[in-house]
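Observation: inputs received (chain + adenosine-5'-diphosphate).
Thought: call the complex predictor directly.
Action: predict_structure
Action Input:
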Amino acid sequence: MSAQEKHIEEEIQPSEQAKKQDFSADVSRLLEIVAHALYTNHDVFLRELISNSADACDRLRYDAIAKPELTKDNPEFRICAYKDTTNRSLTVVDNGIGMNKEELGENLGTIAKSGTAALMEQMKAANANDDKLNLIGQFGVGFYASYMVAHSIEVVSRKSGSDDIWLWESDGKSGFTIREANEQESARLDGQRGTAITLQIKDEACEFLLDEKIITTIKEYSDHISVPIYLGPPSEVAKDKDASPVNDASALWMKQKSEITTQEYNDFYKHTSGGFDEPVMTSHWKAEGAIEFTSLLYVPMMRPWDLFDPSRKHSVKLYVKRVFITDDIDTLMYPWLRFVQGVIDSEDLPLNISRETLQYNPTIEKIKKAVARKVLGDLDKLSRDDEAGFSAFWGQFGSALKEGLYDAQEHRAALLKVCRFYSTHDNGDKFTSLEEYVERMKDGQDEIYYISGESTQTIKNSPQLEGFKSRGIEVLFFTDTIDDFWLQTVQDYKEKPFKSITKGDIDLDKFEPSSGPKDTSDSDIKPDEQDNEATSKLLTTLQDLLKDDVNNVRKSGRLTDSPVCLVASDEGVDMNMERVLKIHQKYQSDTKPVLEINTNHALIKKMAKSCDNGGDITDAAYLLLDQAKIIQGSPVDDLSAFTRRMSDFMSKAI
Ligand code: ADP
Ligand code: MG
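Observation:
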């Protein structure tokens, strides 16, 4: 028994008057927001209630496959909604699975989902009401939305298979009570089963005491719900042989595409995902052949707060022949497609099989692969049909999708096709595809150059880019941590290997400069013999001075404006990868980087001269090295030595 349940157990003795229990702190805060901030779009409360009722029916329908006695009194599932103008109340009744005492306390008194803290953080940050509304939707705290229109709510419920009927009651402010329901209250249930939720409507929401308003709201938000929704109390609906549901009451995904409007697609998205945004992509597909299934899948507009939760759980719902089975089979979707929402309805899977066994059913594996291929194909199509929409998608979900590059080899080609990166081409402002990159490659270029780092902003001005920019050679920016990982397994794209520009020696001399080198010196003048000698002397001196810190010091082909940069040696791990690994403390490097110097730079020339004349360049050498570290975001090892040298130089200069 959980602490929560124990708490309820102690608090409530059926014989006594029920004692008031507090909402969890999160719920109280949430309720406050709901009551005050969310008034703009209060219709959605009905959608939330109906959505919960439909879920409850789906769950009982599934349980009844194994235990038909659970629904033998009335195998028809339905939801009824009706007003009572005398009592100024609106009631929503379902004959679904119901809740017992513990579940009432747990489900309606706490926010059961993990990450509540994250929700509250984001709530605090979101200023506009719309943002908060979006957050509420994402976090799926739908039941509480009813406090937008109700000053108090009673929930009468009976868990299927149990005899007790409970009543949960709260004004949404001062906590809640749970006690056994009396006969009159129990009569609210439909055939002694399920849940009846009665809202005492606030004056300012009295429109919900009009049948027309109830009907239009149901039609607007819940038309596609596959459980029929009737207007009127269950007893009357049962008597009326001609009663017809308010909603369409057929599984939307089974209809022909041509019969479904965008509005209906979007409403269904909101129902299944609990989101308030509009999907950027809707993929409705009937797979026929070796396996038969229908999928109606959506890519949301907004990244959910838990996208990078370590569980990497998806939330696609699995149906078998229109019966909801579960949204909890890990093997149904690849983790890197976990942002996809919607339903998959299989014709082949057996109904009477436990959820646990389903997990390993080979049909599930086949569906998973087919669905991934379809979604990737549709994303590729989206990228061609709606560039802005696709860019928005990529910004939100690209880093999750890229996990597939090392997770799923068989989808790699399709994934690489939809991957987008910033690059030097648009100065880091626009996404580019690998295909576009390859089209723009220079004559003689046979590698795809990239630089990785924390953000586009930080790497845009990396000295290592200078030589590439001056020759008009495009370099991709890899700024997601995940990039460093997939690069370990994905060697090339269309046989063009990926090449880090911060690792190893790169010969740029074979490429013509596109816009004359912008070096700080007068480069037209060929360096004479003496210069060359001084340079080699400088190289060996630096090598000697810095031998504890660098593997090698060499002349750089990739610098035009900066005096120095660090690159990883050929055997070493890429510089940024090393930084990432160090942050995660999984890595102790044993290969030292290479310091490259720009022999055309005025500072380097001066140093060479001074060195040639027997001057001491120790401090300058260390400052150069530290400078190279700072610009790439690596820590300076000895800060006090750095500041001492810096001060010395400054005082000389001043
Ligand atoms: P969510 O639906 O996202 O879980 P809600 O706040 O809408 O969040 O509902 C909280 C929980 O209360 C549901 O998950 C469900 O377990 C329970 N619940 C709500 N309404 C009903 C109902 N009509 N029948 C059975 N259980 C319900
Ligand atoms: Mg809900």
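Thought: report the result.
Final Answer: Residues 253-398 form a domain with the Ribosomal Protein S5; domain 2 fold (CATH 3.30.230.80). The two ends are 75 Å apart (CA to CA).
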